[in-house]
């Protein structure tokens, strides 16, 4: 009995009115009880038979103090309540007795016999409940799996994940309880495996940020990969793949959708040889695959890249095709941006490794794999932005195989070598012999320079006059006083490139888009006037950015006009009808401009750069779209986190109730142990007091025998002054201080008392004392212990 216990006392047997009190004070041999109304009383210990002691936390205690909560728990899960009640009933009871007890407590009054038959079967399914005999009373035994329930959570999970053909009934449940009790010790992958093994878990911790499979057994990892495969199977569908999260995510302690990618990344980047990690590399698609590939690249870029490189390469080989696949799960712009970033990092890894130390075999194979897998246009842009000399030297470290990455990059480098960035600008004087040789090589190779319409997108437009066309006159600004004769002055003639004068350099053309100044002779120098069929030459607009090797386009005119004389620095007006005038209009054919190969290559490079700028703008647009989608996902994630917090609150509430029940059970167990200890202490104290009492009685009995002898001598003394009489009175007075009293005096006549008198001649109604007896009275108590009965004889009538 402990302070706080309840006691119940019934008057007039079990049918009388019951009174429930609370234990307020417990002493060694008594307890103070407070009854309703504040009245207190003291009961002896051990408690009398008419008092029932009800420990704190027991089913009866909860029925008296928190009946509604107990009834709700019984309605939801009656088996644990009945097991606890069976333990309180002494560990053995029939179903009928349990039925009567629950009805007496007010729990199962509405249930019929069919319900109790099913409950019996469920009770027998508990590991601690068995039958004393076939179809006999239920009996509670010691927990056979208590050792398993006390296991650490990780060890119990390992045991639970081990495949077994047959296990004792109740073992799996005991292991699940052990894992549930220590779930805070589990890693992320162990929590996933525990969910697969049907362990009741709380909501996934929102603070989880460590996804490291090292130290987790392969059996547990295999269970986690099994769940991840089921959660991502929608992405691997051949038709209509979807990136929508599985409905199983985030429920019953399962990881949320946001945790799937980190779980996969942690598995595929582990440097250990793991069959579960290899299997996980086959699961991701789309953005998940891209995240895994980038994580593998980061591992190769890290300081400890030499650890587990073979395993990373094996998984990266599986992941890379899925990350670059044209899947509907990933927008094309995002896939291109991923390929560009991956290529840049691969080239940087190759150059960095070549500059520091020779790359390891897994690094070489990984870079070779990336350079082989990226698209051709991505490879060209990436190589063009890299130092070609360093790259050419670093390529020697890659494996040389047909159609491999080394050959691909070398071809790109060769094409870039043919189109150097330091090519001459338009208008720069060139070697005529070299220009003629290159033109001849182009003609012999069958290269078609293309019509003027095809070159118009990359070259300056030839300007035409609005009303009249005149032969174009081109004179070097730095070489005055030289006369240029226009050949082919017929209207509509256009001079070929071979007819261009090469003896003197022409003025350098301005940049594209700027007006071209008209170069004519001064009016004060008649020797420099151009010779034309007309009296005055028309204004000539040379083509913008045209190279010095090319002729100026000759424009036809309907009537010869005088040549316009102007200063060399004054630009000629640009005709706005040049682009809009179709070929053959006004009797003039379309102008044709022929570019040299070097000039064409420069324009090709400029066009590639403009395309790169456009691609960057598209990438920026796609990035903004991704940020918008990320914001939407964050908004959705906040909703998911709110739902997770609510689920966690519910789980914590359930755990708190379970912890409360466990605490109450432990309290009851501790109280039982303390009561047993107190009872043992009380029993020891009682035994000690009994032994002391018996020892005192034995000593006093010996003293009583001595006093009887002294009394006998004093009785037979003839004189009053006999010393034996004085000695008897003195010893009798001292014995009285120890509670020793005499029984009768010699010659006294009294009624016969069988407990105090001894009659050798047989009992009689009246007897005479022949020899006094002695008794012991402890502490003045009314009860006395007869040490030596008085010797009596029958009284004479």
Automatic annotation (TrEMBL):
Residues 433-445, 505-529, 560-573, 581-594, 680-690 have a biased composition (Low complexity). Residues 535-548 have a biased composition (Acidic residues). Residues 232-255, 417-598, 665-690 are annotated as: Disordered. Residues 665-679 have a biased composition (Basic and acidic residues). This is Uncharacterized protein.
């Amino acid at each position: 009995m402990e302070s706080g216990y309840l006691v119940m006392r019934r008057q007039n047997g079990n049918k009388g009115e019951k009174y429930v009190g609370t234990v307020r004070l417990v002493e060694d041999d008594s307890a103070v009880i407070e009854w309703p109304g504040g009245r207190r009383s003291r009961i002896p210990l051990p408690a009398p038979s008419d008092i029932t002691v009800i420990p704190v936390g027991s089913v009866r205690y909860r029925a008296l103090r928190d009946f509604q909560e107990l009834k709700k728990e019984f309605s939801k899960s009656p088996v644990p309540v009945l097991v606890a009640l069976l333990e309180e009933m002494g560990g053995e009871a029939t179903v009928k007795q349990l039925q009567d007890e629950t009805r007496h407590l007010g729990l199962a009054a509405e249930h019929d016999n069919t319900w109790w038959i099913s409950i019996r079967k469920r009770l027998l399914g508990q590991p601690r409940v068995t039958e004393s005999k076939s179809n006999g009373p239920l009996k509670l035994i010691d927990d056979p799996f208590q050792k398993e329930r006390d296991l650490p959570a990780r060890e119990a999970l390992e045991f639970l994940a081990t495949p077994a053909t047959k296990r004792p009934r109740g073992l799996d449940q005991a292991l699940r309880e052990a894992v549930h009790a220590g779930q805070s010790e589990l890693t992320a992958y162990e929590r996933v495996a525990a969910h697969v093994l049907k362990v009741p878990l709380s909501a996934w911790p929102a603070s989880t940020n460590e996804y490291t499979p090292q130290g987790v057994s392969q059996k547990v990892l295999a269970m986690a990969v099994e769940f991840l495969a089921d959660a991502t199977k929608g992405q691997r569908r051949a038709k209509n793949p979807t990136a929508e999260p599985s409905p199983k995510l985030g429920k019953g302690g399962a990881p949320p959708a946001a945790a799937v990618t980190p779980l996969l990344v942690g598995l595929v980047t582990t440097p250990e040889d793991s069959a579960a990690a290899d299997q996980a590399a086959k699961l991701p698609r789309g953005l998940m695959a891209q995240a895994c590939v980038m994580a593998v690249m980061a591992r190769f870029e890290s300081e400890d890249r030499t650890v587990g490189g073979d395993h990373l390469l094996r998984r990266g080989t599986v992941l890379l095709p899925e990350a670059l696949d044209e899947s509907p799960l990933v927008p094309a712009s995002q896939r291109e941006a991923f390929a560009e970033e991956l290529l840049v990092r691969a080239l940087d890894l190759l150059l960095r490794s070549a500059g520091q130390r020779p790359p390891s075999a897994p690094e070489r194979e990984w870079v070779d794999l990336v350079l082989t897998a990226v698209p051709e246009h991505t490879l060209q842009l990436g190589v063009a932005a890299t130092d070609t000399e360093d790259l050419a030297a670093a390529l020697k470290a890659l494996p040389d195989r047909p159609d491999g990455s080394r050959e691909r990059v070398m071809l790109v480098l060769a094409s870039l070598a043919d189109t150097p960035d330091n090519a001459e600008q338009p208008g720069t004087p060139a070697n005529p012999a070299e220009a003629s040789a290159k033109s001849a090589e182009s003609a012999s190779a069958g290269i078609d320079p293309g019509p003027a319409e095809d070159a118009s997108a990359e070259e300056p437009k030839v300007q035409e006059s609005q009303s009249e066309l005149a032969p174009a006159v081109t004179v070097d600004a730095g070489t005055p006083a030289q006369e240029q004769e226009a050949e082919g002055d017929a209207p509509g003639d256009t001079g070929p490139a071979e007819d261009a004068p090469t003896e003197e350099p022409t003025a350098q053309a301005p940049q594209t888009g700027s007006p071209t100044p008209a170069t004519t002779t001064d009016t004060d120098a008649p020797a420099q006037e151009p010779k034309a069929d007309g009296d005055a030459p028309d204004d000539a607009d040379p083509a913008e950015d045209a190279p010095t090797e090319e002729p100026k386009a000759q424009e036809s005119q309907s009537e010869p006009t005088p040549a316009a004389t102007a200063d060399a620095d004054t630009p000629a007006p640009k005709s706005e009808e040049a682009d809009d005038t179709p070929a053959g209009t006004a009797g003039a054919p379309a102008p044709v401009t022929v570019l040299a190969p070097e000039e064409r290559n420069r324009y090709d490079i400029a066009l590639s750069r403009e395309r790169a700028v456009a691609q960057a703008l598209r990438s920026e647009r796609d990035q903004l779209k991704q940020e918008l989608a990320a914001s939407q996902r964050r908004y959705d994630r906040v909703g998911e986190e709110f739902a997770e917090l609510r689920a966690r609150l519910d789980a914590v509430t359930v755990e708190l109730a379970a912890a409360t029940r466990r605490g109450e059970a432990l309290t009851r167990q501790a109280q039982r142990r303390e009561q047993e200890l107190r009872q043992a202490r009380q029993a020891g104290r009682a035994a000690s007091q009994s032994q002391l009492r018996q020892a005192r009685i034995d000593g006093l009995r010996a003293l009583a025998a001595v006093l009887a002898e002294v009394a006998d001598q004093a009785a037979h003394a003839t004189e009053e002054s006999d010393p034996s009489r004085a000695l008897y009175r003195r010893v009798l007075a001292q014995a009285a201080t120890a509670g020793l009293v005499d029984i009768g005096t010699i010659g006294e006549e009294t009624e016969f008392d069988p407990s105090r008198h001894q009659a050798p001649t047989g009992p009689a109604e009246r007897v005479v004392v022949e020899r006094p007896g002695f008794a012991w009275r402890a502490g003045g108590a009314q009860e006395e212990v007869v040490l030596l009965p008085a010797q009596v004889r029958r009284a004479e009538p």
